[in-house]
Amino acid sequence: MIINNHQIAHRNVVSKYYNFLPEEIDVAIKDFDSILEEQGYHTNGTMFFSIISDPTEEVMTAEIFLTIDEDHFINKTEEEMFFRSYFLVSPMVMTRVMDNFDEVSQVKYWEIINYIKRNRLKQQTPMFVEFKNSHSGRNYVEMSVGVK
User: Fold this and answer.
1) What is the CA radius of gyration of the chain?
2) Start-to-end CA span in the chain (Å)
């Protein structure tokens, strides 16, 4: 199922580009988190990423986003990172992956792309992937694309 008029909105977001094998995304996230921690910043658990490369490529290029508690950011390293006090992408089309992310995500990716084509929308952003938790504690993933 595709949901229209979705948006991603977060405050105090730091991002960094990474290249990695898809199964090693957690290594990239931990690396990014440790870079921020070493600089004295406190991530608060919100993480999402955008898929920059073709999703069928062996090595994925992604921009990983982590939110921090601080409302300012000064990069004291040579790492290239970007800070946004407010991050918003709207409007978007979105679908959810409730189980078996590794197996279902490719299907859901193409479901969104085909929906955009069928409805004569124009893709404005790369694919965003957000890891979320329901009030009951269930983990799931939202995949979304900015459209016009």
Assistant:
1) 16
2) 19
Residues in the chain: 148
Summarize pLDDT for 87-107 with one digit per residue, the tens: 999 999 999 999 888 788 889
Q: Which residues contact 25 (CB under 8 A, 6 or more apart)?
A: 49, 60, 62
Distance CA(108)–CA(130), nearest Å, equals 14
Longest CA span, the chain:
47
In terms of residue numbers, what domain contains 67? 3-146
Which tens digit of pLDDT belongs to each residue from 19-61?
A: 999 889 999 999 999 999 999 999 998 999 999 998 788 999 9
Short-list 94, 92, 73, CA closest to 84:
73
CATH number at residue 132: 3.20.80.10
In degrees, rounded to 5, the angle at the alpha carbon of residue 104 between the alpha carbons of residues 2 and 100 is 120
Beta strands in 52-117 (DSSP E): 60-68, 82-97
In the chain, the number of structural domains is: 1
